[in-house]
Structure formats: structure tokens, C-alpha cells
Amino acid sequence: MGTLSTREQSIARMADVMRDFMANAVLFQDAVARTGGLNSTDLQAVSLLMSQGPATPGELAERTGLSAGGAITAVIDRLEKAGYVSRQRDQADRRRVIVTADVDKVLQEVGPIYGRVGARWAEYLDTLPDEHIELAIELFTRASEINREQIEHLRGAR
User: Which CATH class is domain 6-127?
Assistant: First the structure.
């Protein structure tokens, strides 16, 4: 086994950097959640409600990968008790419940944290040439797509 080429070394280093980035992203989300009196799963659920819109408990369970039964109900109960979401009857079908995020509450509790991080990112990105920013956009977009593919693969394997 010979020595790795510079390209192979860079690709191996990228794998290390991406692993470190993903671990820190998970730990950051957990720290943010705890600051807002939630756990990571709860924060992800309310984030999905904000980005993808209101949902039934079953739809939210699908988005998060939680079971539609007790697990998602417990998440919604905790979020409602903390004031992050509300449940309303669907006007079209009174048997259905729709869960909606209280965007103002979320922004009040955790918005300043994301604001600080966003400001730091903007400050850093402002130092980069346009081509580097475009490359970063492509890299993170593709990383997100690959992660989404793997999430679906893992959920399908269950």
C-alpha cells in the first residue's frame, strides 16, 4: 500500500472535517434546544413545523421519523406545554388535529442564538470570494441531499 496522493489526502481530510462538522451541528442543536427548555427531537419537530408548515400528528411523525403513536404525541405534548405549538381542529375535517408552530415564541426563545450564529457566518462569508461561496452552497446542498437520501434509506430499513 503506497502513500496517498495529495488528492486522496484531501478527500480523507474532508471526511474528517465533515464528521466533525456534523457532530458539532448535532451538539449545537442539542445545546440550543436545552436553552429553550426542549430536547433535540422537540426542537427539530418545531423547526420542521416552521419550515414545512402545520401538520397533523401523523404527518409530523413522518417528517421526524418518529412513530405516529406515543412518541410523537409526547413530543407535541411537551411542545404545547412549553408554548411552542398549538393544536387546532381541522376546519374541513373536525376529526383531524393540526399542529402549528408559534413562530413568535420560537424566535423569542432561540432566535437570538441563531441570530448570533448567523451574524458570525455572514461575517466569515463576507471575507470569501464569490466563487468560494458558490462552492460552499453546492457542497452543503449536496451534503444535505446525501443525508436526506440516507435518512430515507435507514427509515426504510426499519
Answer: mainly alpha
